[in-house]
Specification:
With 557 residues, the protein is α/β, with parallel strands linked by helices. Helices cover 39% and strands 18% of the residues. The protein contains 19 helices and 22 strands. The strands form 6 sheets. Strands 1, 2, 3, 5, 11, 12 and 13 form a 7-stranded mixed β-sheet that branches. Strands 16-17-15-14-20-21-22 form a 7-stranded mixed β-sheet, sandwiched between helices. Helix 15 links the parallel strand 20 and strand 21. The longest helix has 25 residues. 55% of the residues are buried. The mean pLDDT is 96. It comes from Lentzea guizhouensis. It catalyses: L-ribulose + ATP = L-ribulose 5-phosphate + ADP + H(+); D-ribulose + ATP = D-ribulose 5-phosphate + ADP + H(+). One of its GO terms (biological process) is L-arabinose catabolic process to D-xylulose 5-phosphate. Belongs to the ribulokinase family.
């Protein structure tokens, strides 16, 4: 297909708190316009909007109507900002957080939109960071180990409470009426494409990473039935659907979706994708050894490899899960930017806020400035970055945060820097796990909003002892989605060709400082000792504290 030099595509990135649309020129990847729409309901983790009823701990829901509002607002605003005619747009692609699950009827209507289920929290979207299915995940893991299920090592030996099966089993056991009414248990990445095309397609990425689809099959009925007899038909009845490859055309934009977005009816709609995985081509990281860390509220680490290896604690490995012809690996940290934001809300004295306001800067900027003046180890602290649990390599969302070494002289900037360092140590643990398993990490590419923090980037380079490359776009997922739209529209034969023409990266932007590398090596050994002590069963106090909290809240309700 000949590429019209004026042809454009739209990428839409559905994040945790908002959706972002970007208009991209097909022939060179130029980003012409962008717009953001905040989700009206945000993350529903305190009370259910329909009732005001408090939600239990570890719940995180969303309202699917918020996603449609992104199509109605951000997409036309981005096109207007780009200064182009909508007729120039030849395709649209989307990405989503994962694993974010929507229970729907046969025609795709979310159950929470039905009057009879509006007051049932299980009828709503279960956001990726919904961790209340840990008990179900524990049972899945124990049974899989006992039975020697061959798919378990493909997920580092542990299935997460964030994923499709644990969340689905929770719905069955806690809200059987919702489970019975649910015709499809759908990844939000596929649900939004369904709304755009009128046709349900299931993408191979989430099926592999979040849906335990390996070697052409899901876990069998006998396994599922042993978890719960009523769960035996979960795959056949609620989940199974033909899979579509990344970059394929899912269908054409319907008249209704064209009205929402202002785009031409009939243009190509790409198969759904995941925000982290779709970012790798945008950063031109399509070859083995190039690990991309997409750093935001959480961090997802993705990379491609030429060989299949079993990496302890990885989130999954999928054939063609990122680019065709290579094994796509995933790992991640459940909390990164969320931890920094929590500390600002809960741990910073008013005087810091007043000082930042007086200078016209953010508290983040003030703390970063103060922390940057410290030598490595000067604050005398070590922290564990588990305030939102541990996704890799321990895969345990019952774990919690720790700061060791505080004294009466400890200041806010000390703890802030220790938390920055803790997230870098967490990434180091992941890289070491891959390297030790025979999957070499030769380059670390950073994407996401946290690339703006120069101190954080230097800490990461020093802790992992690798030069950092930085994606050339501030809209990595949305750009990656737009690139897949270009492939779906036929402008490029595959995502590698699209990446070469439309992707962007700045190589070796931050390099390690040798004396810092040496100092952090000592601190990392202490971090690793605490990591294993609290995370590998030597001391289960974190699990007990979680249970004490649940018990106390249960007595109050």
């Amino acid at each position: 297909m000949t590429i019209d030099r004026d042809a454009c595509v739209v990428g839409v990135d559905f994040g945790t708190l908002s959706g972002r649309a970007v208009v991209v020129r097909v022939h060179d990847g130029a980003e012409l316009g962008t717009a953001v729409h905040e989700f009206r309901h945000g993350v529903v983790d305190q009370v259910l909007p329909a009732t005001g009823r408090p939600l239990p701990p570890e719940w995180a829901l969303q309202v699917p109507a918020d996603y449609l509002d992104v199509l109605r607002t951000a997409v036309p605003q981005a096109v207007e900002a780009a200064g182009i005619s909508p007729s120039q747009v030849v395709g649209i692609g989307t990405d989503f957080t994962a694993c974010t699950m929507v229970p729907v009827t046969a025609d795709g209507t979310p159950l929470c939109d039905l009057p009879e289920f509006a007051e049932n929290p299980h009828a709503y979207v279960k956001l990726w960071r919904h961790h209340a299915a840990q008990a179900q995940a524990d049972r899945i893991n124990e049974l899989a180990r006992t039975r020697g299920e061959t798919w378990l090592p493909r997920y580092g030996g542990l299935i997460s409470s964030e994923w499709e099966f644990a969340k689905g089993l929770q719905v069955l056991e806690e809200a059987p009426e919702v489970y019975a009414a649910m015709a499809h248990w759908v990844e939000a990445a596929d649900w939004i494409v369904w709304q755009l095309t009128g046709t349900y397609t299931r993408n191979s990425c989430t099926a592999g990473y979040k849906g335990i689809h390996q070697d052409g099959a899901y876990p069998g009925e006998d396994f599922l039935g042993e978890l719960n007899p009523e769960f035996a038909g979960f795959v056949a009845d609620k989940l199974d659907h033909p899979l579509s490859a990344l970059g394929d055309r899912a269908g054409s934009l319907t008249a209704q979706a064209a009205e929402w977005t202002g785009l031409p009816e009939g243009i190509a709609v790409a198969v759904g994708n995941v925000d982290a995985h779709v970012t790798a081509p945008a950063a031109q990281a399509v070859e083995p050894g190039q690990m991309v860390a997409i750093m935001g509220t959480s961090t997802c680490h993705v990379m491609s490899g030429a060989v299949l290896r079993e990496v302890p604690g990885m989130c999954g490995v999928v054939d063609g899960g990122i680019v065709p012809g290579l094994w796509g690996y995933e790992a991640g940290q459940s909390g990164v930017g969320d931890i920094f934001a929590w500390f600002l809300r809960s741990g910073v004295p008013p005087v810091y806020h007043e000082q930042a306001a007086a200078r016209g800067i953010s508290v983040h900027e003030l703390l970063t400035e103060l922390a940057a003046g410290q030598a490595v180890g000067e604050h005398g602290l070590i922290a564990l970055d588990w305030h939102s649990g541990n996704r890799s390599v321990l895969v345990d969302h019952e774990l919690s945060g720790v700061v060791v070494g505080q004294t009466l002289a400890t200041k806010a900037e000390d703890v802030y820097r220790a938390l920055l360092e803790a997230t870098a140590f967490g990434t180091r643990v992941i890289i070491d796990a891959f390297t030790d398993s025979g999957v070499a990490v030769t380059e670390l590419v950073i994407a996401g909003g946290l690339v703006k923090n120069e101190l954080l980037m230097q800490i990461y380079a020093d802790v992992v002892n690798l030069p950092l490359s930085v994606i050339g776009s501030a809209q990595g997922p949305a750009l990656g989605s737009a690139m897949h739209a270009a492939v779906a529209a036929g402008a490029y034969p595959d995502i590698r060709k699209a990446a070469a023409a439309m992707g962007s990266v700045r190589r070796n932007v931050v390099t390690p400082v040798p004396e810092n590398v040496e100092a952090y090596e000592r601190l990392f050994l202490d971090y690793q000792e605490l990591h294993d002590y609290f995370g590998r069963g030597a001391n289960d106090v974190m699990h007990r504290l979680r249970q004490y909290r649940r018990d106390a809240l249960g007595r109050k309700s």
